[in-house]
Design goal:
By secondary structure, the chain is α/β, with parallel strands linked by helices. The chain folds into two domains: 134 residues; 232 residues. Helix content is 27%, strand content 16%. Strands 16-17-15-14-18-19-20 form a seven-stranded parallel beta sheet, sandwiched between helices. A four-stranded parallel beta sheet has the order 10-9-11-12, covered by helices on one side. It has a three-stranded antiparallel beta sheet with strand order 1-2-3, with no helix packed on it. Strand 1 and strand 2 form a beta hairpin. The longest helix has 20 residues. The protein is globular and about 80 Å long. The N and C termini lie far apart (52 Å). 51% of the residues are buried. The chain binds calcium ion. The site of calcium ion (CA) has 7 residues, from strand 14 and helix 10.
């Protein structure tokens, strides 16, 4: 360690049964550092990495979150650094003989009286932003749509002050793909459902090329957009005979956009109960603090949302896979537990076909941040779901139809998870990060929560909330959870996040488990 410790030596243990704890101090701790309980470090340990609280014999479990996150490959003395190299990862829990709906938490009292200012839609859903989205059937049209969007923003948007933004829903799907493959349903329904996100106000317009595999009638079969009843979405096809030259295409897109902008401009914010929030939670660039500070605060806020009658989605299959027994136990009934197992089995198979398993998840940054393997990462990740019963499960790309705490099965990839949660109907996104990522989404505001003070300080104009204060004892999990809950209501009402302030938007990325051709 070259850097002096920031304060007196501090470690964080998650459960009384744990035989490891993580180093809390910014900059880590040097050999010889002594904790209040008398434990002395036998070697330097970086921040977020694990110290053995007692001697761990070769082959014995390394326990964090009261779960064996691995087994010692050799004897480890008390006060030593329990690094990834000393940890053998356990096999994934079999999807058999799982506890089903065994945990029945006492019904939490409803949380009443919390509201936000949102845009109520004709179908009853509520938007937190007022955005014109232009759906595309194929990547071929992306350049034209980009050009049109730039002109719409410059020339039309100023005439419609109630509209926040114009977004081209661009993606790499639509042609050159095995569109009749069974799994093609995933990208197609994702795109269909994204166009109906509550932030788009039911104004569905589409730009197609003409010759692509994903024909408009396949993307939007009759009756597939309930909010339009039987009407067709408006549609500009670039290969139409009427278009002579590029400017004719742009003019056609701009005319169509102007009609929708004038409809969106009529929307007004009105007071809505917190029950109308549909919050997607996710983590990315995780470290060992994710499961100690930010994710528990999100979990507390998630319980508040469920008590307020809102919807919370948690996702990321590889980051819950090792906790499947905890999740099936929290399912409200056997049907929900079975749906969860079905999604895990589907993903196990998907990974196997690719010649990998769940351990393909962790990144070099995760490991540098102290997360030894996917088991440890998963235990910290599921904390975001709080303690409410799990009342529903969505397959990738499906749209929500119930409230409460929902497991929306998605890959853990930040962009793919965010894209699938937009399709599910999310109107607010919570994103926790320890390593730091400038992540943002154009269709939905993203509140970013830092896991550590050091990150929150360095990225002071990128992080919306600092949960690192939990690690230093400046705030409790409950206090941070309430702060996040209030911030969610403010952002849902129009307060800009840092990602919105700087206009930081990642691409939509469709999950396509089917072959390309
Ligand atoms: Ca993620």
């Amino acid at each position: 360690m070259t850097k002096a410790p920031s304060s007196k030596p501090l470690h964080i243990r998650m459960h009384a049964n744990d035989n490891v704890a993580i180093i809390a101090n910014d900059g880590g701790l040097p050999a010889g550092a002594v904790f209040a309980d008398g434990l002395a470090l036998v070697e330097a340990i970086p921040q977020g990495h694990k110290v053995a609280l007692s001697a761990i014999a070769e082959g014995a479990p390394i326990v964090r979150y009261n779960v064996a996150i691995g087994y010692a490959v050799r004897d480890i003395p008390a006060g030593a650094w329990v690094s990834e190299a000393l940890t053998r990862m356990p096999e994934a829990r079999e999807l058999l003989n799982l506890p089903i709906a065994t945990i029945k938490p006492p019904a939490a009292p409803p949380l009443e009286g919390y509201t936000f200012e949102g845009y109520r839609n004709a179908d009853g859903s509520v938007g937190t932003r007022n955005i014109l989205a232009i759906t595309t059937t194929v990547q071929c049209v992306a350049g034209v749509v980009d050009h049109a969007v730039a002109r719409i923003k410059a020339e039309l948007l100023p005439k419609f002050p109630n509209v926040d933004d114009v977004v081209g829903l661009e993606h790499s799907y639509g042609c050159g793909v095995a569109i009749d493959a069974p799994n093609a349903i995933v990208p197609i329904r994702t795109l269909r459902n994204i166009s109906q996100n509550p932030n788009f106000g039911g104004q569905v317009m589409m730009v197609s090329l003409g010759c692509e595999k994903l024909q408009p009638a396949r993307l939007f079969p009759k009756g597939s957009i309930p909010i339009l009843r039987d009407a067709e979405p408006s549609h500009v096809c670039l290969q139409d005979q009427e278009h002579v030259g590029f400017m004719s295409m742009i003019a056609s897109i701009m005319q169509t956009a102007e009609r929708h902008l004038s409809e969106l401009n009529k929307r007004q914010r009105e007071t809505c109960p917190a029950a109308e929030l549909v919050v997607g939670v996710q983590c990315g660039g995780s470290d060992a603090f994710s499961g100690v500070t930010a994710n528990p605060a999100v979990g507390f806020a998630s319980d508040l949302l469920v008590r307020a009658g809102a919807t919370v989605m948690f996702s990321e299959v590889t980051e819950v896979r090792d906790a499947i027994d905890q999740l099936t136990a929290r399912a409200v009934n056997a049907e929900v537990a079975e749906a969860m197992v079905r999604e895990m089995a589907w993903y196990d198979n998907y990974l196997t076909q690719g010649g990998v398993d769940r351990s393909a998840n962790t990144t070099p940054g995760n490991k540098k941040g102290g997360l030894s393997n996917i088991v440890e990462k998963a235990m910290g990740s599921i904390v975001k779901s709080g303690s409410s019963p799990i009342s529903g499960v969505l397959a990738p790309g499906e749209k929500l139809s119930t409230k409460g705490l929902i497991y929306a099965a998605t890959p853990a990839s930040d962009f793919i998870c965010g894209t699938l949660q937009i399709a599910a109907g999310m109107n607010l996104h919570i994103f926790t990060t320890g390593r730091g990522t400038p992540y943002g989404l154009a269709p939905v505001p993203v509140i970013k929560v830092a896991t550590r003070n050091d990150l929150a300080k360095r990225w002071h104009d990128l992080m919306d909330l600092n949960a690192g204060r939990i690690a230093t004892g400046e705030a409790t999990i409950e206090e941070m959870g309430w702060e996040l809950f209030h911030l969610m209501l403010d952002v849902a009402s129009g307060k800009k996040t840092w990602a919105e302030h700087w206009k930081l938007h990642n691409a939509l990325v469709l999950f396509n488990p089917a072959p390309v051709t």
